[in-house]
């Protein structure tokens, strides 16, 4: 496309030059020199008639040397490179992208809500036999991490993106604010994908208004070609590929819309039909992921079967409010993905209320964590629960998590257990199972998180978790346990049953 534009501009310049040259010599109609001005009295000078005419030798015209066109070393590598300066080559969801003045890379910014990902379109369809690798040069912004819950998805002539195994995967991103090359070996990551490759869907960074950048992206024949392309790109643009810096503006607190108290509810789902698809009930909203949740039979009654979706009380209650929330809960699956509940989360990173999305915070342990804040109970099979809270890690300049696996006296996969969460509004949450204390959380030190440029709400920054006997399970600082009150239930490809949800103000 660029070559065609340059050629067209060159042809236009030649036409203009020739036209101007033709207009520069003025003659009369007979081709003779223009007559001298009227009124001149000087006689014409005659040449001697006996002098032979002298011919002046004229040198042959010297051809102008033609400069060899400068070859772009990047074009010498056999690769299918996506032109990032053309917005038609990519599209975004829950994010926006732009090439800023003077920057040879695409900056992608996460928006406050929505399914957050980007899709890049290759210039041609290709077979993974011909181009076995997809690679890109990236930089993750200050204090950001990539939302791995969205994964990389293949989009081919046979379809996609699809959540089917073998059509998606992840890589390990480096989050040191500098530039790195990410590489996907297509047949390993997308082992079940069929057809010719057309597009690649990518995850984006987690936090609202967080950024990451892509300098180049394409399909390659070999790892050697990837290294060569990156080397030549750095020769051309390396002086503009600098580390990301922390934002310079002073942090301003963000206060979400708040209610003084919960609307008290008692939801037993008995008005629903067993087998009917899930939907909102009373004041609880249903946020679909795969939209596979249903209402299910419970010994002749009805319960909510949440699979890859979430059900939550959508409003946030002001700081200092006290409440009790009780419900019946039964687990179905094990620890591969999140299934459970989360309470006292804030608005940041949760405006879409899509609690089935992995928060991408800790991929080092089996299972997954959801929600950008609050306290999560993830049921990992049998009588074990993983209790976790997102935290801020100043050393890593990123979110992390603190967690503990806690054993109960009941098997959550065997039958329904009755839970009660009681927050006294003054620094303590007690979680009980079947009338007995399971764990307690003591929270304190409300305020903004220092050193976290993308976190603007207030959180309780210190939380201690203890078991029923009072033994300390963890004591963490820089915790993202919201000063506001809330509750959500969710599954991420992990089935759970919930029934008899009761919310009261204490």
Describe the structure.
The protein is mainly beta and 506 residues long. It is built from three helices and 29 strands. It has helices at residues 2-22, 186-189, 223-237; strands at residues 79-81, 90-93, 95-98, 106-110, 117-126, 133-140, 152-156, 168-169, 179-185, 197-203, 211-220, 258-259, 265-267, 285-288, 294-298, 301-306, 309-317, 323-331, 339-343, 375-379, 384-393, 398-407, 417-423, 428-433, 436-447, 459-467, 472-482, 485-491, 496-505. Strands 13, 15, 16, 18, 23, 24, 25, 26, 27 and 29 form a ten-stranded antiparallel beta sheet that branches. The radius of gyration is 34 Å and the shape is globular. The two termini are 67 Å apart.
Mean pLDDT across all residues, rounded?
86
- The assigned structural class equals mainly beta
* Poorly predicted spans: 1-57
Characterize the largest beta sheet: strand count, sense, and whether it forms a barrel. 10 strands, antiparallel
What is the global morphology? globular
Number of E strands? 29
Percent helix range: under 10%
Calculate Rg over CA atoms.
34 Å
SS strand fraction: 35-45%
Number of alpha- plus pi-helical segments: 3
Ends distance: 67 Å
List the helices and strands and how they pair.
Layout: H1 2-22, E1 79-81, E2 90-93, E3 95-98, E4 106-110, E5 117-126, E6 133-140, E7 152-156, E8 168-169, E9 179-185, H2 186-189, E10 197-203, E11 211-220, H3 223-237, E12 258-259, E13 265-267, E14 285-288, E15 294-298, E16 301-306, E17 309-317, E18 323-331, E19 339-343, E20 375-379, E21 384-393, E22 398-407, E23 417-423, E24 428-433, E25 436-447, E26 459-467, E27 472-482, E28 485-491, E29 496-505
Parallel strand pairs: 12-17
Antiparallel strand pairs: 1-11, 2-5, 3-4, 4-11, 5-10, 6-9, 6-11, 7-8, 7-10, 13-29, 14-17, 15-16, 16-29, 17-28, 18-23, 18-29, 19-20, 19-28, 20-21, 21-22, 23-24, 24-25, 25-26, 26-27
């Amino acid at each position: 496309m660029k070559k065609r534009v340059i050629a067209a501009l060159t042809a236009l310049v030649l036409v203009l030059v020739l036209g101007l040259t033709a207009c520069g010599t003025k003659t009369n109609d007979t081709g003779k020199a223009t007559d001298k001005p009227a009124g001149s009295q000087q006689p014409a000078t005659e040449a001697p008639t006996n002098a032979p005419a002298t011919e002046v030798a004229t040198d042959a015209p010297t051809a102008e040397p033609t400069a060899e066109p400068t070859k772009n070393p990047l074009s010498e590598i056999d690769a299918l490179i996506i032109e990032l300066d053309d917005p038609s080559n990519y599209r975004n969801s829950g994010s926006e992208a732009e090439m800023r003045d003077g920057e040879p890379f695409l900056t992608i910014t996460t928006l406050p809500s929505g399914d957050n990902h980007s899709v890049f379109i290759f210039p041609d369809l290709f077979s993974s036999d011909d181009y076995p690798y997809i690679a890109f040069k990236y930089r993750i912004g200050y204090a950001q991490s990539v939302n791995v819950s969205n994964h990389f998805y293949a989009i081919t002539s046979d379809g996609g993106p699809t959540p089917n195994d073998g059509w998606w995967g992840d890589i390990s991103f480096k989050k040191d604010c500098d530039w790195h090359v990410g590489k996907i070996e297509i047949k390993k990551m997308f082992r079940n994908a069929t057809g010719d490759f057309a597009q690649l869907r990518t995850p984006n960074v987690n936090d609202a208004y967080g950024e990451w950048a892509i300098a180049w992206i394409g399909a390659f024949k070999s790892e050697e070609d990837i290294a060569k392309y990156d080397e030549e790109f750095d020769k051309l643009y390396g002086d503009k590929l600098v580390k990301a810096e922390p934002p310079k503006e002073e942090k301003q607190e963000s206060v979400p819309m708040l209610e003084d108290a919960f609307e008290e509810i008692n939801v037993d789902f008995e008005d629903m039909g067993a087998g009917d698809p899930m939907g909102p009930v009373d004041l609880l909203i249903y946020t679909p992921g795969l939209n596979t949740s249903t209402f299910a039979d419970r010994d002749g009654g009805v319960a909510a079967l949440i699979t890859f979706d979430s059900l939550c009380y959508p409003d946030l209650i002001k700081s200092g409010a006290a409440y009790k929330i009780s419900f019946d809960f039964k687990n179905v699956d094990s620890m591969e993905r999140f299934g459970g509940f989360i309470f006292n989360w804030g608005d940041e990173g949760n405006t879409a209320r899509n609690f089935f999305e992995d928060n991408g915070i800790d991929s080092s342990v089996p299972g997954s964590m959801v929600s950008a804040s609050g306290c999560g109970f993830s049921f990992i099979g049998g009588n074990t629960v993983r209790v976790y809270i997102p935290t801020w890690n100043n050393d890593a300049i990123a979110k992390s998590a603190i967690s503990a696996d806690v054993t109960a006296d009941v098997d959550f996969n065997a039958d329904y257990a009755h839970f009660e969460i009681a927050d006294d509004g003054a620094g303590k949450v007690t979680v009980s199972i079947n009338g007995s204390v399971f764990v307690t959380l003591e929270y304190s030190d409300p305020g903004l998180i220092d050193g976290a440029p993308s976190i603007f709400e207030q959180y309780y920054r210190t939380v201690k978790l203890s078991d029923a006997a009072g033994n300390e399970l963890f004591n963490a600082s820089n915790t993202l346990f919201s000063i506001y009150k809330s509750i959500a239930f969710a599954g991420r490809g992990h089935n759970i049953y919930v029934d008899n949800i009761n919310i009261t103000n204490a």
